[in-house]
Design goal:
By secondary structure, the chain is α+β, with helices and mostly antiparallel strands. 34% of the residues lie in helices and 30% in strands. It is built from 4 helices and 12 strands. The strands form 3 sheets. Strands 6-7-8-9-10 form a 5-stranded antiparallel sheet. Strand 6 and strand 7 form a beta hairpin. Helix 1 packs across helix 2 and helix 3 packs across helix 4. It is globular and about 40 Å long. It starts with a strand and ends with a strand. 46% of the residues are buried.
């Protein structure tokens, strides 16, 4: 059986606000398996946002583990991300998971990968998934040339542009903000 995957997730911190959004498409091979997957969540009592790309079941496992780390480290997002990345790289079960996460609070955003990376993106813009470079490019341009827009508007437009270009991204967009 083919794995369900592909998506676009985009996060922007702008003017003291953070927005994290994702499209709703999940594909199985070259077929749309589901069009309204919710890939963005509020965690830790609504103080942290998390979005995922990759295999859906794997991503849910990682979000659960990340939430456990948040609880273990008193909501310290960076510490929880580093500890998850360490486990992900070294744990025999977790190593096989195929997904990536973006996590954000009001002041910082991180990309967590299965290779043990915890990246703090430039320009306070992060993207993952098959349409990530389209969405990221749009968000960079909007942040530079339309700074009057809100973080949420930048995420919305960046994801819409990605959906216009990437066949694995749809216009069924969900955005969470802090």
């Amino acid at each position: 059986m083919q794995k369900i995957h592909a998506t676009t997730v985009l996060g922007v911190i702008h003017n003291g606000k953070v927005a994290l959004g994702a499209d709703g498409q999940a594909t199985m091979g070259n077929t749309v398996a589901k069009s309204n997957v919710r890939k963005v969540r509020k965690l830790y009592g609504g103080k942290i946002l998390a979005g995922f790309a990759g295999s859906t079941a794997d991503a849910f496992t990682l979000i659960e583990r990340f939430e456990e780390k948040l609880n273990a480290f008193g909501g310290n997002m960076k510490r929880a991300a580093i500890e998850l990345a360490k486990d992900w790289r070294t744990d025999r079960f977790l190593r096989k998971l195929e997904a990536m996460l973006i996590v954000a609070n009001e002041s910082e955003m991180l990309i967590i990968s299965g290779t043990g990376d915890v990246l703090e993106p430039d320009n306070q813009i992060a993207s993952i998934g098959s349409g990530s470079m389209y969405a990221q490019s749009a968000a960079i341009a909007l942040k530079r040339h339309a700074s009057d827009l809100s973080a949420e508007q930048m995420v919305q437009e960046g994801l819409n542009i990605a959906a216009d270009i990437c066949i694995y991204t749809n216009h069924n967009i969900i955005i969470e903000t802090l």
